[in-house]
């Protein structure tokens, strides 16, 4: 007997590699919109030109296609016997199956705003946008307006009609998922300039502030401050290697340099002086920086200091802050202080800071009086109070029991 052949079963293995990451896409259909106003002067002269004859606007472009408005003073339809005017929008350039939405508006020239509007926008269309098959295709109304009514309406003024046309050309785009993304780091220009300040690399000027030396760069300072620009690029300090700064503390000059190079404040230091037991607002770092900002015309630094000081406005502090704002040309802060003082005048006048204003800033009292008068005018126009602010002061208090409002 012969041997049977041995059958060996071999299992085939299919190697499965890494799966490709999933992809996605999205179809977005929207419209590219554009408008055109067509003014028809001499309407009465256009009448009688004949049924089916039109006046055309200049062409205008929307969505890559050109369009024109056609106005038929005697109507487009012979069957209407010129009883209506007709208005159409025509595709004035080559195109095939251009899908679009339209809006025609006959302007009410009386100022009442009662315009006559025919619009595809903001409403559901059963058959979708209108399709223009070729150049010369039109959409519009054969019976846009009865002519006899038009000629006695507010739409016709000085023998002139005004028609607004809006076209929205439909477009579809495909948005694909990005398989690869590149992370863009945060803006770091301030950090780089800050390193330039800290390392003192290539510095070309030294400031001596009460014996403490600060190395800096003339071009950086000139770019940030109009005052430094004048001194270094236009004035006598251009060749100076060392400049003595009087009437400024080293910590204030250091904070100012930090802002100039990094475009930011050292918030921790400002907060530390704000929450300290410093009795006088003018002794805080923020107030001293406001002075420096005014001295070197640093507009953004001034506004940052104004924002910080605004948070500290209260009955007891507003007079001091108002004086600072006036002295250092902080217009926004000054306006807030005046309004706050006018609204809480009785209490403010009893504060210690107000005595300082009376003795040292008489002009501010006059400005405060004008602000109070403005508040009284607003109050009286809305129903009014029975007694003026000044009458309340003569009584020695706020007799109306008005709550003190602190504006921050």
Automatic annotation (TrEMBL):
Region (Disordered): 379-408
MATH domain boundaries: 33-167
Pfam families assigned to the protein according to its UniProt record, in alphabetical order: BACK_BPM_SPOP, BTB, MATH_2
SMART domains given in the database record: BTB, MATH
Gene Ontology terms: biological process: cellular response to salt stress; cellular response to water deprivation; protein ubiquitination
Annotated InterPro entries: BACK_BPM_SPOP, BPM1-6, BPM_C, BTB/POZ_dom, MATH/TRAF_dom, SKP1/BTB/POZ_sf, TRAF-like
UniProt cross-references to CDD domains, sorted A to Z: BACK_AtBPM-like, BTB_POZ_BPM_plant, MATH
Limits of the BTB domain: 203-269
Function description: May act as a substrate-specific adapter of an E3 ubiquitin-protein ligase complex (CUL3-RBX1-BTB) which mediates the ubiquitination and subsequent proteasomal degradation of target proteins.
Family per similarity comment: Belongs to the Tdpoz family.
Protein name: BTB-POZ and MATH domain protein
Organismal lineage: Eukaryota, Viridiplantae, Streptophyta, Embryophyta, Tracheophyta
């Amino acid at each position: 007997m012969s041997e049977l052949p041995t059958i060996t079963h071999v299992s085939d293995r299919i190697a499965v590699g890494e799966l490709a990451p999933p992809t996605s896409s999205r179809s977005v259909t929207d419209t590219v919109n554009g408008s055109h106003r067509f003014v028809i002067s001499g309407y009465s002269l256009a009448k009688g030109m004949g049924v089916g004859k039109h006046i055309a606007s200049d062409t205008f472009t929307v969505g890559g296609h050109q369009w024109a408005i056609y106005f038929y003073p005697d109507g487009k339809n012979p069957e209407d016997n010129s009883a209506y005017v007709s208005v159409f929008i025509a595709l004035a350039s080559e195109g095939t199956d251009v899908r679009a939405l339209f809006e025609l508006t006959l302007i009410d020239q009386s100022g009442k705003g009662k315009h006559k509007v025919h619009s595809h926008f903001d409403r559901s269309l059963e058959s979708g946008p209108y399709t223009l098959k070729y150049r010369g295709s039109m959409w519009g109304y054969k019976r846009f307006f009865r002519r006899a009514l038009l000629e006695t309406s507010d739409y016709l003024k000085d023998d002139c009609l005004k028609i607004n046309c809006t076209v929205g050309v439909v477009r579809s785009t495909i948005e694909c998922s990005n398989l690869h993304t590149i992370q863009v780091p945060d803006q770091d220009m301030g950090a780089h300039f800050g390193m330039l300040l800290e390392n003192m690399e290539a510095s070309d000027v030294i400031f001596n502030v009460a014996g403490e030396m600060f190395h800096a760069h003339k071009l950086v300072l000139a770019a940030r401050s109009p005052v430094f620009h004048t001194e270094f690029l236009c004035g006598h300090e251009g060749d100076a290697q060392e400049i003595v700064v009087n009437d400024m503390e080293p910590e204030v000059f250091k904070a100012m340099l930090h802002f100039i190079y990094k475009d930011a404040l050292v918030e921790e230091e400002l907060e530390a002086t704000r929450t300290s037991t410093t009795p006088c607002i003018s002794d805080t770092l923020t107030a001293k920086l406001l002075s420096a900002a005014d001295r070197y015309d640093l507009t953004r630094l001034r506004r940052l200091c104004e924002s910080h000081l605004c948070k500290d406005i209260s009955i007891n502090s507003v007079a001091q802050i108002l004086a600072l704002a006036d002295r250092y040309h902080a217009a926004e802060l000054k306006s807030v202080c005046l309004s706050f003082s006018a609204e809480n005048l009785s209490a403010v006048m009893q504060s210690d800071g107000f005595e300082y204003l009376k003795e040292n800033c008489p002009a501010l009292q006059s400005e405060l009086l004008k602000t109070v008068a403005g508040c009284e005018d607003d109050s009286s126009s809305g129903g009014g109070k029975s007694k003026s602010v000044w009458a309340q002061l003569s009584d020695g208090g706020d007799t109306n029991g008005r709550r003190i409002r602190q504006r921050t």
